[in-house]
């Protein structure tokens, strides 16, 4: 299993840094975001260190598919039975802060705000 010794999410996988785990299998880990943006805010990550979505290859297809299936399961188990949102930020333009691929799962009892404001400045 490939890990990066400087990566905060690899340290969470290895239990070097604590987290609130909600799901784990041999390929995928899910834990609560430390700064939640919604009543349900989970992070779904591959156990193998992949820097981001722009770095994936065909060899990652299976784990990427599993992340989607797990995201749906954990969202509903966390109480988001009437819908939720997934977000994968990538790179500088996508405002990715942690360079280990992760899928945000956001939900709660009430509808979320719009994803990106339509009149947001584009420069
Ligand atoms: P992104 O901006 O897409 O890279 O999102 C990174 C996310 O990781 C942010 O929502 C952070 O709140 C979250 N985060 C950073 N450190 C931790 C940690 N130690 N435990 C849980 N979530 C974290
Ligand atoms: Zn990592």
What do you see in this structure?
- There is one protein chain.
- This protein is of the alpha+beta class and 123 residues long.
- The chain contains two helices and five strands.
- A hairpin with a 3-residue loop joins strand 1 and strand 2 (28-32).
- The longest helix has 17 residues, at 61-77.
- The mean pLDDT is 95.
- Bound molecules: adenosine monophosphate (AMP) and zinc ion.
- Zinc ion is lined by residues 4, 7, 9-10, 49, 100.
- Biggest β-sheet, characterized? 5 strands, antiparallel
Strand and helix order: HEEEHEE
Strand content: 15-25%
What gross morphology would you assign? globular
Distance between the amino and carboxyl termini: 40 Å
The radius of gyration over CA amounts to: 15 Å
Mean pLDDT: 95
Bound molecules: adenosine monophosphate, zinc ion
Strand runs, count: 5
Helical segment count: 2
Low-confidence stretches: none
Spatial strand sequence of the major β-sheet: 1-2-3-5-4
Indicate the percent of residues in helices. Answer: 10-25%
- The secondary structure category is alpha+beta
What key attributes describe this structure?
alpha+beta, binds zinc ion, binds adenosine monophosphate, 123 residues
What can be said about this structure in brief?
The chain has helices at residues 8-13, 61-77, and strands at residues 21-24, 28-32, 40-46, 85-87, 103-107. The protein has 123 residues and is an alpha+beta fold.
């Amino acid at each position: 299993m490939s890990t990066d010794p400087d990566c905060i999410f690899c340290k969470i996988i290895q239990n070097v840094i604590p987290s609130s785990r909600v799901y784990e299998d041999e390929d995928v880990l899910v834990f609560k975001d430390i700064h939640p943006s919604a009543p349900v805010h989970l992070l779904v990550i591959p156990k193998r260190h992949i820097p981001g979505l722009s770095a994936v290859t065909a060899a990652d297809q299976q784990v990427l598919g599993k992340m989607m299936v797990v995201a749906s399961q954990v969202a509903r188990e966390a109480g988001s039975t009437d819908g939720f949102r997934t977000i994968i930020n990538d790179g500088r333009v996508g405002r990715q802060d942690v360079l280990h691929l992760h899928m945000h799962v956001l939900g709660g009892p009430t509808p979320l705000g719009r994803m990106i404001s339509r009149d947001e400045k584009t420069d």
